[in-house]
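User: Once you have settled down, look closely at the record that follows, taking as long as you need, and be ready to discuss the fold:
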Amino acid sequence: MLKKKEEKKNRDPKVVELVEKITKAYEKDKKFSTDVVAKMQDLRNLFIEMEQPTLVKSVRLVYEYAEAFGEFSIETWEAEGGLSSFEYYLGLLENCNNKYNREEVKALNAFLKAKLAGEDAEFQRPDDEDEA
C-alpha cells in the first residue's frame, strides 16, 4: 500500500492532467488526430519547462513516428494485450519519475530514433537486454 502512495506522490499533477486529455482525444478515433498531436506538443512544452530532456525528446519522437508510419505500435507492448502501445506509453509518462518507466522511455527513444533514421531496429525493453 505504501508503494502506491509513493507512486502517486511522484506524479506531477500537470503531467497527469495533460496525459488524461491526450488519452481522451486518442480514445475518440484510436489514432493520432491533429488534436492528439497538438496536446502532445503541449506535453512536450511542459517537459521543457520541467527540464526533462529525455521526455521532451520522447514525446517528439512518438508523434513524429506516428506521423511517418501512420500509427504508433510497439510489438512488445501490443503482445501484452489490454492497452494499445500509445496507451501504454502514456502510462509511462504519467508516472515519469519512476526509474523503471524512465529506463523504458530511454529504450523507446533509441528505437524510435533508429526507425526514423531508416534503420532496421527492434525495440528491446531494458529488462530484455539482461536476458540476451
The helical segments are 2-10, 13-29, 34-49, 53-69, 75-79, 85-94, 99-116, 126-131. Residues 61 and 113 are 7 Å apart (CA to CA). The mean pLDDT is 87.
